[in-house]
Amino acid sequence: MVSSPRSAGRPRISVLSAEQIIDAAFDLVRTAGPSGFTMAGLARALSVQPPALYHYFAGKDEVVRAMRGRIADMIDVSGFTAGPAERSPGAFSDAVLRWAHSYREAFLSYPAGIALLATTAIDGQERSVANYEAMTVAFLGDGWPEAMIVDAIVVMESYILGSALDALAPEDIMSPGASAAGAPHFARAEGLRTRNAAERGIRTSDQAFSLGIGALLTGLRSTAGLA
């Protein structure tokens, strides 16, 4: 029996879901950029009429909040919520480092979201706000000055997002290549860096990130009078 053709105007995706819309939103940001991210464009990407999207989301801002929520769900804040019995010397720093690495990995999964989400307010995204609340409580427990906490988080997030972009670059981006003869000291230093990363079984960008986030945390704690 020959099946009847699909009715005109009928969506290609038979059953739409919020998760499908979020997936398509990240894809649209990747192809069209933050400025090209619209509800009309999102509907076209899903082969549905715009009203179909409003059954799940009230508008673009709500879609963006859902995108941020997906990222937030991938970020490890478990170390900040540990009870006193679970805390040990260095537990706070370990929690920050786990948070930072998971934050970077989350955005590496959705690199197109960096520009959009980094410039969109967290207002209304409950999971992100809950994460920041858990972090703030942990910072206070570690003795940080209250007025410095959010600035410290923003400083680390700026580094994390930049490092996520760095991780997308070619592995040999810092290699002087044919120009090595004119920069022997740099070429040797870069060669040692690459060899060290290879011996550890990691990418050079991962090695640089670990060095930087550790140094950044140490410096911030020193500035806070906690070193």
UniProtKB/TrEMBL annotation:
PROSITE patterns: HTH_TETR_1 (PS01081), HTH_TETR_2 (PS50977). Transmembrane segments: none annotated. Pfam families: TetR_C_1 (PF02909), TetR_N (PF00440). The keyword Metal-binding does not apply. Residues 38-57 bind DNA. GO terms for molecular function: DNA-binding transcription factor activity; transcription cis-regulatory region binding. Residues 15-75 form the HTH tetR-type domain. InterPro entries: DNA-bd_HTH_TetR-type_CS, Homeodomain-like_sf, HTH-type_TetR-like_transc_reg, HTH_TetR, Repressor_TetR_C, Tet_transcr_reg_TetR, Tet_transcr_reg_TetR-rel_C_sf. Keywords: DNA-binding, Repressor, Transcription, Transcription regulation. Gene3D superfamilies: Tetracycline Repressor, domain 2 (1.10.357.10). GO terms for biological process: negative regulation of DNA-templated transcription; response to antibiotic. This is TetR family transcriptional regulator.
